[in-house]
Amino acid sequence: MPKVDEIQKAEKISSLQGELTQLIAAVRTESDEKKKRKMIVKIGEYNRRIDKLKSGRLLSRETKRDIVAYSFIAPNFIGFCVFTLIPIVFAFALAFLEWDGSNPIKWAGLDNFARLGNDIFFKAALKNTIIYCIGTVPLTMVASLALAIVLNQKVVGRGIFRTLSFFPYVASLVAITAVWKMLFHPSKGPINNILYTVFHVAQEDLPQWFSGGLVLLSMILFSVWKYMGYYMVIYLAGLQGISSELYEAASLDGANTWQKFRYITWPQLSSTTFFVVVMLTINCFKVYDIAIMLAGGGSGELTTSATVLVYYIYQKAFIDWDLGYSSAVAMVLFVMVLLVTIIQFRGQARKERA
């Protein structure tokens, strides 16, 4: 029997080698690139099968390498599935269910989404989030780009100023919000004190920075100050990638500073600006900690004028225990971010094609 097996094995190898030879000859004469790529893939498969038959191994070398590679990936992938992927899928499913975390789950269909239209708190949170995004994204982009252009020049103490600009981003949020609340305190803060003593604003007319209509303005200004250092570093990397020869050629043609920025700096930074806008937009839609720290007060609860979508999701889920409805709000937030990102990607692709 072993001899018969060896003869069958040799015949199989000979047959595969014959087919492989024909396939190699066909690849050399094939003009269609797609068909050629498919043939090359088949050649690799034939070589693996022949090698497996000759060696008698159950697993080929490539299969063993794949197993080793996947074994390194597996712990992280399992963690991602357990702690991220499965909760995301469950959250999507929960949007169509009714559940308070203790009683049995009930099917709700589209009822959770129908409630959104009559929920004044959801509308307020949605409006506040959109206003915050519209205010924060362009201001942060302009401030970080201006800072990057200034600190890209050969100025005295450039390294110190770069460090100071980046410091708010890495500093503790609790510490810097405490400082901001002291600076803008309605009665004891130096900002209102300057308005009162220098500009003679009446005591009753002094702004209440962390309540009413000014709370969103305070959040926007704080966000710009905190994050412009991070995006400044990204813009600095983009500026240092621009060839100095372009500026030299523009100078020879008599271009002024504004013309250099308009026709060289800004076009060369288009991909960097696209990245900054996308990241800023996503981060603004996810804002939560800044709102809590600045406008939460001692209780950590936000008023209608400061409520943002992520806080409202938390409130409905873990205070009211309306998990189905909170998941519906989360789905609305997800769709908003997805649509804005898709629009930005398509706009960038259209610009690059032009």
Automatic annotation (TrEMBL):
Q: Which GO terms describe its biological process?
A: transmembrane transport
User: What Gene Ontology terms describe where this protein resides (cellular component)?
Assistant: plasma membrane
Domain ABC transmembrane type-1, by residue range, is 126-344
* Sorted UniProt keywords: Cell membrane, Membrane, Transmembrane, Transmembrane helix, Transport
Domain of life, per UniProt, equals Bacteria
Bilayer topology: Multi-pass membrane protein
Q: Which CDD domains match?
A: TM_PBP2
Q: What is the first-listed, main subcellular location in coarse terms?
A: membrane
Segments spanning the bilayer are: 67-97, 129-151, 163-183, 206-225, 292-313, 325-345
List locations, semicolon-separated: Cell membrane
Q: Which family does it belong to?
A: Belongs to the binding-protein-dependent transport system permease family.
The protein's name is ABC transporter permease subunit
Tell me what organism the protein belongs to. Candidatus Acetatifactor stercoripullorum
Q: What is the lineage of its organism?
A: Bacteria, Bacillati, Bacillota, Clostridia, Lachnospirales
